[in-house]
Amino acid sequence: MTIEQTKSEIIFRIQRNTDIDDLQDLVDYFLYRSVTRKAKATLKQIDDLVKEVKKGRWDKTREKLGLVSELFC
Prior knowledge:
Layout: E1 2-5, E2 10-13, H1 20-36, H2 43-65
Antiparallel strand pairs: 1-2
Protein backbone atom coordinates (compact mmCIF):
# COMPACT_ATOMS: atom_id res chain seq x y z
CA MET A 1 0.00 0.00 0.00
CA THR A 2 1.22 3.49 -0.77
CA ILE A 3 -0.16 6.85 0.25
CA GLU A 4 0.37 9.87 -1.96
CA GLN A 5 -0.47 13.43 -1.00
CA THR A 6 -1.13 16.08 -3.61
CA LYS A 7 -2.24 19.70 -3.18
CA SER A 8 -5.90 18.73 -3.03
CA GLU A 9 -6.03 14.99 -2.39
CA ILE A 10 -4.65 12.07 -0.45
CA ILE A 11 -4.49 8.98 -2.62
CA PHE A 12 -4.33 5.45 -1.22
CA ARG A 13 -3.05 2.79 -3.59
CA ILE A 14 -3.97 -0.69 -2.45
CA GLN A 15 -3.43 -4.05 -4.10
CA ARG A 16 -6.35 -5.18 -6.19
CA ASN A 17 -6.76 -8.39 -4.20
CA THR A 18 -7.69 -6.46 -1.02
CA ASP A 19 -11.06 -7.44 0.45
CA ILE A 20 -13.63 -4.85 -0.65
CA ASP A 21 -15.52 -5.21 2.66
CA ASP A 22 -12.39 -4.19 4.55
CA LEU A 23 -12.07 -1.14 2.30
CA GLN A 24 -15.72 -0.23 2.92
CA ASP A 25 -15.11 -0.45 6.67
CA LEU A 26 -12.20 1.94 6.27
CA VAL A 27 -14.28 4.37 4.20
CA ASP A 28 -17.09 4.19 6.79
CA TYR A 29 -14.60 4.99 9.55
CA PHE A 30 -13.27 8.03 7.67
CA LEU A 31 -16.82 9.22 7.05
CA TYR A 32 -17.66 8.76 10.74
CA ARG A 33 -14.58 10.75 11.74
CA SER A 34 -15.38 13.60 9.37
CA VAL A 35 -19.01 13.80 10.53
CA THR A 36 -18.18 13.69 14.24
CA ARG A 37 -15.06 15.86 14.14
CA LYS A 38 -16.86 18.99 15.35
CA ALA A 39 -19.61 17.29 17.35
CA LYS A 40 -20.10 18.68 20.83
CA ALA A 41 -22.66 16.16 22.11
CA THR A 42 -22.02 14.61 25.50
CA LEU A 43 -22.14 10.87 26.07
CA LYS A 44 -25.39 11.33 28.04
CA GLN A 45 -26.99 13.22 25.12
CA ILE A 46 -25.98 10.45 22.76
CA ASP A 47 -27.32 7.76 25.12
CA ASP A 48 -30.63 9.65 25.45
CA LEU A 49 -30.93 9.95 21.68
CA VAL A 50 -30.25 6.23 21.19
CA LYS A 51 -32.94 5.37 23.77
CA GLU A 52 -35.42 7.69 22.04
CA VAL A 53 -34.74 6.19 18.62
CA LYS A 54 -35.00 2.63 19.91
CA LYS A 55 -38.24 3.37 21.75
CA GLY A 56 -39.80 4.89 18.65
CA ARG A 57 -38.73 1.93 16.57
CA TRP A 58 -40.19 -0.56 19.06
CA ASP A 59 -43.46 1.40 19.28
CA LYS A 60 -43.82 1.29 15.48
CA THR A 61 -42.98 -2.42 15.33
CA ARG A 62 -45.44 -3.22 18.12
CA GLU A 63 -48.16 -1.25 16.34
CA LYS A 64 -47.40 -2.94 13.03
CA LEU A 65 -47.66 -6.36 14.67
CA GLY A 66 -50.89 -5.41 16.41
CA LEU A 67 -49.51 -6.10 19.90
CA VAL A 68 -51.35 -4.63 22.88
CA SER A 69 -49.23 -1.83 24.35
CA GLU A 70 -50.46 -2.41 27.95
CA LEU A 71 -48.66 -5.75 28.02
CA PHE A 72 -45.31 -4.11 27.40
CA CYS A 73 -45.49 -1.08 29.69
